[in-house]
Specification:
By secondary structure, the protein is an alpha/beta fold. 35% of the residues lie in helices and 18% in strands. The protein has helices spanning 12-20, 35-41, 44-51, 86-99, 121-138, 140-145, 160-168, 190-198, and strands at 26-30, 56-60, 75-78, 103-109, 151-157, 173-179, 203-208. It has a seven-stranded mixed β-sheet, sandwiched between helices. The radius of gyration is 18 Å and the shape is globular.
């Protein structure tokens, strides 16, 4: 593998954003800094993930690669209703195909606990079946492109951040999207921010384009319920 070593002066996040214009991926190590350090200093991983034009992979400093011969952990991609954004799904399928890992496509939703008493088991089951059908439709073309990738679809009644952090303990990679609008308008949502802080394994944040009329659903970097 050919590589170059660069020493560049400037804010780390801004330097990475500049280099990312010609990169396929940006990989950063995420240090588990004290909360006050994060509040006042910020995070290179967060800054890069919010602004780079290519996917950013954040690896926790205490993460250890599985031993040789060990089974490969699955790739987990978090998606909102309907299986979009497609860029995140494409990135997850391509990574799973290249690494030989199975792929889990996860849609997680949870209403405020105040609504628990009025949501019947039947309503929850109907919602789950509907979402599974939509996920199956969303991945149909990618399954045809990557027939060797073993795909599992999951709809979980759980807060998105909790579901993805839980999966990160066993996954080889967790993939989420974030909206791309240019430097001033970039937005790294709560799910992506929490993952970069708390995930137990590598996280890929993929820039995705928001189209007019898109709903603001959760696992593309915001919350799982429509924003009001």
């Amino acid at each position: 593998m050919a590589f170059r070593t660069l020493v560049v002066a400037g804010p780390p996040s801004r330097v990475l954003v500049d280099l990312a214009r010609e990169a396929r991926f940006v990989v950063v190590q995420h240090r588990r800094a004290h909360l006050m350090d994060r509040l006042f200093v910020g995070s290179t991983a967060n800054g890069a993930a919010a602004h780079c034009a290519c996917p950013v992979i954040s690896v926790p400093e205490d993460w250890e690669r599985p031993a040789a011969g060990a089974s490969i952990g699955e790739v987990v991609v978090g998606v909102h209703e309907g299986g979009t954004p497609p860029q995140a799904l494409v990135a997850a399928f391509e990574w799973a195909a290249a690494s030989g890992a199975p792929l889990r496509v996860l849609h997680s939703w949870r209403l405020d606990p105040a609504y628990d008493d009025i949501i019947s088991a039947r309503v929850a089951a109907e919602w789950r079946e509907r979402q599974l059908r939509e996920l199956a439709t969303a991945v149909l073309g990618l399954r045809a492109l990557h027939p060797d990738v073993h795909v599992e679809l999951e709809v979980a009644h759980q807060w998105p951040t909790e579901a993805l952090v839980d999966h990160s303990r066993r996954a080889s990679l967790v993939v989420v999207g974030r909206h791309a609008h240019g430097w001033a308008g970039e937005h790294l949502g709560s799910v992506a921010r929490t993952l970069l802080r708390e995930a137990q394994g590598p996280v890929m944040v993929v820039p995705v384009e928001r189209h007019r009329g898109d709903q603001d659903w959760g696992l593309d970097a915001d919350e799982i319920s429509p924003q009001t």
